[in-house]
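retry 2 of 3: previous attempt timed out while embedding guanosine-5'-triphosphate. Reduced batch size to 1 and resubmitted. Inputs unchanged:
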Amino acid sequence: MKPSVFKPVVVLVGRPNVGKSTLFNRLTRSRDALVADFPGLTRDRHYGEGRVGDHPFIVVDTGGFEPVAKNGIMAEMAKQTVQAVDEADAVVFLTDGRVGLTGHDREIAERLRRSGRKVLLAVNKAEGMSRTAASAEFYELGLGEPHAISAAHGDGVVDLIETALEGLVEAAPEPEEDGEPVEGEEGFAPVDPVDHRIKLAIVGRPNVGKSTLVNTLLGEERVIAFDQPGTTRDAIEIEFERGGRRYTLIDTAGLRKRGKVFEAVEKFSVIKTLQAIEASNVVLLMLDASAEISEQDAHIAGFVLETGRALVVAINKWDRADSDRRDEIKREFDRKLRFLSFAKMHTVSALRNAGIGPLLKSIEAAHAAAFAKLSTPKLTRALQAAVDQQQPPRKGIFRPKLRYAHQGGQNPPLIVIHGSALDQIPDSYRRYLETRFRETFLLQGTPLRIEFRNSRNPYLDKAG
Ligand SMILES: Nc1nc2c(ncn2[C@@H]2O[C@H](COP(=O)(O)OP(=O)(O)OP(=O)(O)O)[C@@H](O)[C@H]2O)c(=O)[nH]1
Ligand SMILES: [Mg+2]
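retry 2 succeeded.
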C-alpha cells in the first residue's frame, strides 16, 4: 500500500476538567501566533495542527462521552466524540492523577477498548508527584502502561506523543514538499511553479456540490490515475490534466466512485476535511448559494487560513439563486467570511458547467502566488517604497526601522523583515505592508505571512 498523504490524527478524550484543553493548547501553541491577526476569524479550538520534533499531526480536543443525555448539546458532543475516536489514528485518554481513578474513567476506558483504536492512557497533573504513585491505580484500566504527564508544565508530553505516533509517522511522511527555498545569492534559488502539481482539495459542507464539480471537471479531462485504497486513513487521489497543467484532486472518504461517476458521501467529517486541506497546496472552498453561510463554513474557512494553504472560493448552485438571493449571499460572504478577502470568489454552477473555466484560472493563479519566488532585492525595494510612502508610527522613543526583507517560505509566502524596534510595529502597519506586498507581487489567492526580526544590536536606531 502506498503511504498515506495524510497527517496522523491524535484525539484527546477524558472526563471534564482532566486537562484536555490544556494539553491541546500545549500541542498546538506554535500555530497560534501565525493566525493571530486575521480580523473576523473565530477559531475552532477543537482541531489544530500539532508538532513534536519533526512530526506534524492533527490534534482533536473532544467534549466527552457523557452518556446520560439522549439529545441536546451533550448528546451532540458525545456523537462528535464517537466520530472523532472512530477516525483517530491514536487516542490519548486523559485522567487526573490528583483526583485518582473514577467510575467515569472506567466507563470511558471500556468504550475505548471496544473502539479498537490505539489508546494511550495518560495520567495528568502529575507534576511534583512520583511517576509510580501517580499512575499505580490506573493500571487496572487495562489500557497498558499509564503515562504520567503534566499538560500544564509539559512533563512527559513529548514522550507520550512520540509513543502515540509510533508506527504512524513512517507510514505518513510529510507530503513531499514542494521545494523548500534555499538561500542563494539573489536571496533564493529559483523554484518554478510550473513544475509543481496543483494539489487541490475541494472542501465544503455536505450537499454543496463537491462531487458534481468533480464529475464536471473530470468529464472533460483525461483522468490519469485514480487511487482509492480502502482503509480509513487513505485519501482518494485523482490525477488529471487540464491545459497542460497536472492536477491532483485530494479527497477523503467524502467522495466515492460509483461506476463512472463520483458521488459524495454525505456524512461530514471535520477531521477528514482538515486532513485533505493539510495534504493540498490549494483549497477550493465550496459554498451553497441556496443556503445560509453557516458556522461550519466559517470553521472550514478558518482551517484553511490556519494551514496557510492557497484558497479559491466557489459559490455553487448559482443557477438556483434569484437575483435577491444572489445579492444576499454576496453580502453574507463579505460579512461572515471577511477574513477571506485575500481569496478570489467565483459564482458557479457545477451542474450546468457554468463558470468553471474562470474558476480553474483562479486556482492556477492562487497556486502560482503561493509558490511565488520573491528575491531579496525586489522585496527590499518594495519594502523601501512602502516605508517611503508611509513611515511606521513612532512609539515613545522608538521609531521602528525596517531595513530589508527576504523570503522565508512558500505556500504560504513568508516575508521576513529585518530591522530594529520591530516589536513596536502595530497591526495596522503590518496590514499596510501586506497590502503593498500583495499589490507589488500580485499575490492574490494565498495567505501572506509577515514576520519581523530584530537585528542583534539594540543600540542602533533607538531614537529615530
Ligand atoms: N496541576 C495541574 N493542573 C492542570 C494540568 N492540566 C490542566 N490543569 C488544570 O485543570 C483544569 C481543567 O483543565 P482543562 O484543560 O480545561 O480541562 P478539560 O479536560 O479540557 O475540561 P473540559 O473541557 O471541561 O472537559 C484547569 O484549571 C487547568 O489549569 C496539569 O498538568 N497540572
Ligand atoms: Mg476542554
